[in-house]
């Protein structure tokens, strides 16, 4: 369930420009509170029980973050003050980098990122780690993050040339987002301590659609929690199969590469932060086959038996793998040939 106040606006197609104008009017915090207000109103007021105070009585955010490769995001719940870290990691690479993405790619990535940010604005105690696939952080992404009012960390990790997709190459031929997700995981390891940090790590993606329930379901993850993902792996729903007696995960309904140790989508699991920090070997790899990234990190963290099923014993769908096609923009290309553009003076 998405709050009607928001999905309604998107459906009418007024969407981002209007929200953006509002957000730009220096009232971002108020707007965020307003959205939360709508949300509280719709589900009835519930006191927020997940905030934590530190020894000084300051509010700590049991928060949540996301990694971005402009297309891949990563998120986690962290125990941090509401401070915006802006820090750039140096990624050492001997390879020359391919030229910047085309303006179309950048603009559609920004539009999708903005859409995701409007979902994340509704999630309490969230820390968003965004990793930009670039040599230096772009002001577009920086501005978007700042205007969102979400606590965030903006990092960069540029994908070396030989790892980038060539035009027309299917997107599963080369591992996407590995370097960026690992950059975020390393940032977490550098900045947080096991047993002190409280929170949950979740990998989000601007191609997905998130019901707000998924962020609540994952909050009490002890090691690794799992749940169904709609429209994933060529199925209406891809999900863990539970033993009705014990409630433990005994298998999966996956159709695509069901032989994978953990045939689960990136959107279908969350990891306890302290548990992650105690397993330094847990990360993604360039040396695994397509579809094995989830298994690669999870094999260091959990056994199938230990997985914690969420979403009413995996009977509910709160996240959808709604992969969007790259927009075709044929008419825009024709305009461009004439030296014109539909978005002159307007940030889409
Ligand atoms: C989930 O399944 C377990 C074991 O069958 C049961 O004890 C529990 O009540 C179920 N929980 C929900 C929320 O349905």
Q: CATH homologous superfamily of the largest domain, by name? A: Spore Coat Polysaccharide Biosynthesis Protein SpsA, Chain A
Number of E-state strands: 17
Helical fraction? 25-40%
Q: Decide which structural class fits the backbone.
A: alpha+beta
The bound ligands are: 2-acetamido-2-deoxy-beta-D-glucopyranose
CATH topology of the largest domain: Spore Coat Polysaccharide Biosynthesis Protein SpsA, Chain A
Question: What characterizes the major β-sheet?
Answer: 8 strands, mixed
Rounded to an integer, what's the Rg over CA atoms? 20 Å
CATH architecture of the largest domain: Alpha-Beta Complex
What would the average pLDDT be, to the nearest integer? Answer: 74
Distance between the termini: 26 Å
Strand content: 5-15%
Number of DSSP helices?
10
Q: Which regions are unreliable across 5 or more consecutive residues at pLDDT < 50?
A: 1-99
Q: Give the spatial strand order of the biggest sheet.
A: 5-7-6-3-8-15-10-16
Name the CATH class of the largest domain. Answer: Alpha Beta
Principal-axis shape equals globular
GO biological process, one term: chondroitin sulfate proteoglycan biosynthetic process
Protein name: Galactosylgalactosylxylosylprotein 3-beta-glucuronosyltransferase
Family: Belongs to the glycosyltransferase 43 family.
Enzyme class: transferase
């Amino acid at each position: 369930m998405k709050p009607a106040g928001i999905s309604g606006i998107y459906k009418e197609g007024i969407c981002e420009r209007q929200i953006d104008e509002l957000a730009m009017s220096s009232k971002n915090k108020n707007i965020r509170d307003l959205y939360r207000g709508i949300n509280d109103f719709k589900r009835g007021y519930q006191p927020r029980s997940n905030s934590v105070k530190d020894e000084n009585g300051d509010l700590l955010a049991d928060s949540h973050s996301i990694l971005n490769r402009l297309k891949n995001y990563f998120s986690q719940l962290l125990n941090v003050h509401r401070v915006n870290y802006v820090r750039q990691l140096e990624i050492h690479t001997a390879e020359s980098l391919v030229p910047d993405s085309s303006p179309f790619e950048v603009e559609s990535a920004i539009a999708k990122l903005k859409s995701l940010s409007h979902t994340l604005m509704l999630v309490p105690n969230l820390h968003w780690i965004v990793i930009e696939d670039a040599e230096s952080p772009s002001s577009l992404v920086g501005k978007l993050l700042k205007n969102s009012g979400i606590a965030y960390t903006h990092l960069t990790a540029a994908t070396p040339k030989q790892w980038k997709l060539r035009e027309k190459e299917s997107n599963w031929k080369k591992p996407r987002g590995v370097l960026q997700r690992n950059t975020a995981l390393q940032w977490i390891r550098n900045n947080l301590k096991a047993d002190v940090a409280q929170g949950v790590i979740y990998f989000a993606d601007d191609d997905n659609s998130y019901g707000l329930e998924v962020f609540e379901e994952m909050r009490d993850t002890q090691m690794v929690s799992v749940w169904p993902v709609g429209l994933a792996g060529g199925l209406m729903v891809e999900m863990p199969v539970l033993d009705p007696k014990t409630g433990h995960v005994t298998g999966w309904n996956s159709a695509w590469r069901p032989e994978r140790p953990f045939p689960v989508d990136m959107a279908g699991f969350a990891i306890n932060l302290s548990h992650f920090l105690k397993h330094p070997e847990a990360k993604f790899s360039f040396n695994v086959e397509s579809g094995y990234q989830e298994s690669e990190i999870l094999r260091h963290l959990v056994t199938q038996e230990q997985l914690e099923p969420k979403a009413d014993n995996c009977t509910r769908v709160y996240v959808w793998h709604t992969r969007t096609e790259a927009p075709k923009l044929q008419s825009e290309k024709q305009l461009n040939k004439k030296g014109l553009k539909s978005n002159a003076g307007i940030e889409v």
